[in-house]
Amino acid sequence: MVASWDACLKCTLCVTQCPVVSVNGDFAGPKALGPEWYRAWQGGRHEVSRHVQDCTFCQLCEAACPVGVPVAHLIMEHKARAASQVGSRERLRDAILARPHWVGRWSRVSRVPAVVRRFGRLSVSVRFPKRRWSRVPDLGEPLAPPRGTVGLFQDCYSQAYDPELVAMARALLRLWGYTVIPVPQRLTCCGAAASAAGRPALATSLARRLWPELNEALSGCEALVTLNATCDGTLREEWPLYADLSLSRPVQPFDVIAAEAPPIFWERLESVGSGDGVWVTHTTCRGKVARGDGHLTVLALRAGYQTVVPADAACCGAGGSYAFKAEHEATSEALVAALKRQVAEEGSVQGIMTDSGTCALHIEDATGVATRHPAYWLYQRYGQYLTKKEAGDHERT
Ligand code: SF4
Ligand code: SF4
What we know:
This protein is of the alpha/beta class. Helix content is 49%, strand content 9%.
């Protein structure tokens, strides 16, 4: 698969960065399950670890490796080889969850009976997402002259479960002067979930099916804006490296485009004022791998929130469909425990900002605090500005 697997220095830096190692004693860690396993496999020792599936595919190990061993991707291969060790019900479940666009077709069903969950080897404790849809009014005339056209990537989760978020992001982009084309039009997947589940062939096939449609839609655009850090990393980094596919336009996370919003937008948000509450930002692991931590905190501060703290969790344990699997319940809960503790200690957390729909769901369940994408919070805050302005205008007349 890769040429640099045998460059491993055994320094264990990857192990120190792995969030699962510290909460799951059965998990042997990235060094053992990645390069060491691959070396043994190449040498003819065809053994696999059942617990390799406990990896969330956060890729923090790979980002930490000083010599570029593709640790997480070796683990993805390991998962693929270990698939035969998984029971038949788990295999059926995994085949479905690796295609979240299939699951999304049932997005109006938010309650899955316990008996179905048990039979389907789904977690009995997690909440399944409820479709969020409401009328999302425009935010008024653009604040800047036309700035060109961008594609807005409606990932399968947002398209199926959170069309409200897509509409809010679209309204904000229009306010900032962009013409917006939501893509793709049909419910489909970039392959991120398949990669995480150890199905590289399926991930590549999904990528190849989506690529022509995206490229065609992007021909009149300057960039593709993403709402989910995992899909963002998949389109920008995984596609060229592992599927040999490149998009004709740059892929940019929503917060990067937001940072270039007209100055008057930020001035207006600041004028709303901020209460005494605390705001917590959680950059998902794939966001951290791609761009480091801190960009959501900067965004929240620019939006005028006074007290903003980054979340105390490298990985929240959502891992796409990871938290929905019965055997991951304990690991997933242990991973989000630090964040849960942090929110309880802070005492007056008003909201949590994160760049992934499934992370938002998982964190909101664990902490009881509203957890949403930055586009949601920016939209709400600009709405507060408009309401305040309208009240002021009304008083004056
Ligand atoms: S991808 Fe994440 S969970 Fe998996 S081994 Fe690497 S650091 Fe650990
Ligand atoms: S960080 Fe890289 S070099 Fe160090 S043990 Fe892990 S895979 Fe090997």
